[in-house]
Amino acid sequence: PGAEKWLTNTFTQTCAVRPSRHSTFTHSTSATGYNMLTKHEKELIAKIWDKMIPVASDIGAECLLRMMTTFPGTKTYFAHLDIRPGSPHLRSHGKKIVLAIAECSKDISSMMVTLAPLQTLHAYKLRIDPCNFKLLCHCILVTLAAHMGDEFNPVAHAAMDKYLSAFAAVLAEKYR
Amino acid sequence: MVQWTDFERQTIQSIFGKMDYDDVGPAALSRCLVVYPWTQRYFGNFGNLYNAAAIQGNPKVAAHGKTVLHGLVRAVKNMDDIKTTYAELSVLHSEKLRVDPDNFRLLADCLTIVVAARMGADFTADVQGAFQKFLAVVVSSLGRQYH
Q: How would you class A11 by CB atoms within 10 Å of its CB: exposed for 0-12, middle for 13-18, buried for 19 or more?
């Protein structure tokens, strides 16, 4: 735990390495978020997602709607669903996504194990281009901000962005 | 030329018309420096950027945040020719300030989140779409004079 904190502090202080803007980390330990998140950040993330579980359908549908409105190219993956605002498809699909993210946030260090089935699903069946993950992640951050207001302060935002980036990177790991 | 719908024009004018620039500007810039710490590379002479609290309390960050947001107003007032409006600023950022143009997108994302937090439920998916389309044009215009 001491080493993890040192690593995180060193990263944020020296900013020596600039992460690729095309996001997916290829080094598996950084992809788990294990080295990127402090204990405090992990607790903060788990707390936020815990509050989202009872309203998972609402939150999930909103994230998806924001993404498809702002980034219309993402609609191409939903030809099989009714994606009009308020549609039950959006709500049930959104709920699945939110619950997966929330579940994983309870034990971030085990991300690689928890997400193994979803990795396979995304790599071999869904084959969503991973560049879209960061579009959804951004819309999740916007949704959280709209619901939490000032409580979604820069520290919470940074922690959440790191967690979601790690989540997306792990999801893309089996693609090739 | 960018085509704007009436809804998009009204949305942009409304958001910026009601915005407190002196609050939102500093909030967006400080958030960017906290969430994407590597952006601090451009602010070596701003003093203490050691942690989130220091960044959010830093007067130079606040002042610069206000400058940036007031600069954005020029695009709000010239939505039909943002490209030309920002040609000089683009050259400045490229040749003098040497800012990686990807940073414009990072700041735009932080600004979106600050506005979402301020507007809450009023920041609907459609409003977000219009806002981000506007910022995308701004970001693209600022990156245009990089050669």
A: middle
